[in-house]
Design goal:
160 residues; mainly alpha; two-stranded antiparallel sheet; 7 helices; 6% strand
Length: 160
């Protein structure tokens, strides 16, 4: 059943991000918001989700042996990606990352690291920090005025 919930994610963010990273406007064109060379966003999402559902159905319907092989490949790639990220995170310091970020930002006319961090913090989170809770906005059953504590709250003083 989960495939029906998750299949639309193959279209957005899956195909949208892939096409933007690879420059494939035939898959998704952000200027016209169309998929596959002309399908509207709604129809394109539906077609991509349907294709994903058919593939998933085929893997399960034609035997769990085929599904298990496909799952092993996906899990191996996922674990390999995680290992690569962990190795990269341990190889470089935060200052190396910030330096690389600022270099690329300057090349592409984007925000430097500190300006990006400031812009990325959502306004409600800033309001929570100003209120002294040190947390981020959340929709929860908690009576904490919609602010939930974060692990970094105890490490830094609230912004005034």
């Amino acid at each position: 059943m989960w495939i029906y919930v998750l299949a639309p994610w193959m279209a957005d963010p899956g195909a949208v991000m892939l096409s933007e990273f690879m420059g494939w406007t035939w898959l998704y064109d952000p200027a016209t918001e169309t998929f596959l060379g002309g399908l509207s966003y709604s129809w394109g999402s539906f077609v991509i989700a349907t294709i994903a559902s058919v593939i998933a159905f085929g893997l399960v319907a034609f035997g769990l042996k085929i599904f298990a092989r496909a799952q092993k490949v996906v899990m191996t790639l996922g674990i390999l990606g995680t290992v690569v990220i962990v190795v990269v995170l341990f190889m470089y310091s935060k200052q190396d990352f910030i330096g690389a970020w600022n270099t690329m930002a300057a090349e592409h006319g984007s925000l430097n690291y500190n300006d990006f961090i400031t812009a990325a913090v959502p306004q409600p989170a800033r309001a929570c920090r100003r209120a002294g809770t040190g947390g981020t906005r959340s929709a929860s059953w908690s009576p904490a005025h919609g602010c939930s504590p974060t692990p970094t709250a105890s490490l830094s003083s609230p912004a005034k």
